[in-house]
Amino acid sequence: MRQSYFSYPLLLVLALIFSTACSKYEEGPASILSKKSRLVNHWKTKQITANGFDITSLNLITEVIIRDNNSITVKGNPGGNSTSADGSWIFNGNKTRVLVTNNDGSLDDYEIVMLQKDECKFRRIDDNGATILYHFVSN
C-alpha cells in the first residue's frame, strides 16, 4: 500500500514533464489546440531573414491570411507597390510542413519551426539555396 501512495505523485510529475517537454517543432511549447486551429489566422510579418540577414524592411511579405477552407492570401508592399497572391495550403502527412500551391501551379514547401495560436515561424530554402526564416504574429 505504501508503494502505490508514492507512485501516484511520481506518475503525475513525470506526466507533466513529458507533456510540456514534447513538442513537434523546434521552438515553442506543446499545445492542446489542433495544428490547423493554430495555423488558421490573419498573420502580420514580424521578421523575415535570408541566410541570417534581416530583409523585413523590403516588405516582400507584410501579411498572410490563412483560412479554414485551406485557401491562403499573401500580401506585400515591395518598393511601395501593393501585391497580393492567392493559393491553397495543406499540411504534409505528419504536420511538420505547410505546402502552398500558388495560382500558377508551383508548390512552396515551408518547414514549421514554431506554431502557436498568436505566433509562428517557418523555414524555407529558396530556389537559390538561401535559407529564409519567416516570423509572424497574430494581426
Keywords:
Lipocalin, 139 residues, eight-stranded antiparallel barrel, single chain, alpha+beta, globular
Blueprint (SSEs and pairs):
Blueprint: H1 2-21, H2 35-39, E1 41-50, E2 53-54, E3 63-66, E4 71-76, E5 83-91, E6 97-102, E7 107-115, E8 119-125, E9 131-138
Antiparallel strand pairs: 1-2, 1-3, 1-9, 3-4, 4-5, 5-6, 6-7, 7-8, 8-9
Word description of this protein:
- This protein has 139 residues and is α+β, with helices and mostly antiparallel strands.
- The chain has two helices and nine strands.
- It has helices at residues 2-21, 35-39; strands spanning 41-50, 53-54, 63-66, 71-76, 83-91, 97-102, 107-115, 119-125, 131-138.
- It has an eight-stranded antiparallel β-barrel with strand order 1-3-4-5-6-7-8-9.
- The model is unreliable at 16-21 (pLDDT under 50).
N-to-C series of helices and strands: HHEEEEEEEEE
Round the mean pLDDT to the nearest integer and report it: 89
Examine the secondary-structure arrangement and name the CATH architecture.
Answer: Beta Barrel
Strand segment tally? 9
How would the global form be characterised?
globular
CATH top level is: Mainly Beta
Terminal residue distance: 55 Å
**Whole-number total of structural domains:** 1
Arrangement of strands in the largest sheet: 1-3-4-5-6-7-8-9
What is the radius of gyration? Answer: 19 Å
Estimate the helix proportion, in percent: 10-25%
> Major beta sheet, specifics?
8 strands, antiparallel, barrel
Query: What is the CATH topology descriptor?
Result: Lipocalin
Discrete helix count? 2
Strand content: 35-45%
Uncertain parts: 16-21
Broad structural category: alpha+beta
